[in-house]
Design goal:
By secondary structure, the chain is an alpha/beta fold. Helix content is 37%, strand content 14%. It has one domain: TIM Barrel. Strands 3-4-5-6-7-8-9-10 form an eight-stranded parallel β-barrel, surrounded by four helices. Strands 1-2 form a two-stranded antiparallel sheet.
């Protein structure tokens, strides 16, 4: 049985999530990749326990993470039962529903039927009575936001989740569902958008909405699926994500993008950081994000990303240089 590092909380920064009472670790561990049925279980255990030893308390899943869909939750459930059971009250577990999970008209999108059924399945896979945060994974244009919000409210009142969030909602959708949830008495806790140096859409309105509504935020893909590392500077390595994932394909790794990555890497070196560390620190600049969701394929990547917290400050000149590179 794993025993946690007693000094784990000394290594991490914790931020208040919006106007709630909940604090989240500045870095959270995502299980979108490398926690599926075909991945090495011992490596999964090492990554989760390494993250916890570094002070990461938030572990993020979704019903469809795998492959196969659901297997990441099953594997995390085993790790919880076998390694982290004594520490459950020190851990934030989140999961989501919103993408296709099972055949027929009730296994997708944002209906009350789907969201409640999916969470029940997730709880069984993880062996939990409740999750800390339950997200609607994406907006559903065919289901009224009032129905989706009412389902999220019911989930909290039933004790199956302590808080609720949304992911991939635009500013207008976020504003509306936040207003509905507040009237229902279950405030929107957090929004999980895709955000990194190459994808800055949340700066065009969403961050303003979140600040006004008192909603926290946690970014996914802060390293742009690995582009914001030094991995692709000299080409596409065999076995890298670009060779096996439809989310990052070789045609997206253009000469122009490589040129920008090289310049960003040079700036990171001047800051005494790896490019990955600078990218994580850039996400957290100014305190607008509550947390940054990191993925990993091995424990060393987690400790490297946590070390980004040693230098979160950017000079105005550095920020201007980054903006100039990214033009």
């Amino acid at each position: 049985m794993y025993t946690a590092n007693p000094s784990r909380y000394d290594k991490m920064k914790y931020n208040r999530c919006g106007r709630s009472g909940l604090m989240l670790s500045a870095l959270s561990l995502g299980m979108w990749h490398n926690f599926g049925s075909g991945d090495n279980y011992d490596n999964m255990v090492d990554m989760v326990t390494t993250a916890f030893d570094c002070g990461i308390t938030h572990f993020d899943l979704a019903n469809n993470y795998g492959p196969y869909a659901g297997s990441a939750e099953e594997n995390f459930g085993k790790i919880l039962a076998n390694e982290l059971k004594p520490y459950r009250d020190e851990i934030i577990v989140s999961t989501k529903a919103g993408y296709g999970m099972w055949a027929g008209p009730y296994g997708d999108h944002g209906s009350r039927k789907y969201l409640i059924a999916s969470l029940d399945q997730s709880l069984k896979r993880m062996g939990l009575d409740y999750v800390d945060i339950f997200y609607h994974h994406r907006p559903d244009p065919d289901t009224p936001l009032e129905e989706t919000a009412a389902a999220l409210d019911h989930i909290v009142r039933s004790g199956k989740a302590l808080y609720v969030g949304v992911s991939n909602y635009n500013p207008e959708q976020t504003q509306k569902i936040s207003e509905i949830l507040r009237k229902l008495g279950t405030p929107l806790l957090i929004h999980q958008p895709r955000y990194n140096m190459f994808e800055r859409w949340i700066e065009d309105g969403l961050q303003t909405v979140l600040e006004h509504e008192g909603v926290g935020s946690i970014s996914f893909c802060p390293l742009a699926q690995g582009l914001l590392t030094n991995k692709y500077i000299h080409g596409i390595p065999e076995g890298s994500r670009a060779t096996k994932s439809h989310f990052l394909t070789p045609d997206r790794i253009t000469e122009d993008k490589i040129s920008k990555i090289v310049k960003l890497n040079e700036l990171a070196e001047k800051r005494g950081q790896s490019l990955a560390q600078m990218a994580v620190a850039w996400n957290l600049r100014g305190g607008k994000l509550t947390s940054v969701l990191i993925g990993a394929s091995r424990p060393a990547q987690i400790t490297e990303n946590v070390a980004a917290l040693d230098n979160l400050d950017f000079s105005e000149e550095e920020l201007n240089t980054i903006d100039e590179i990214l033009k």
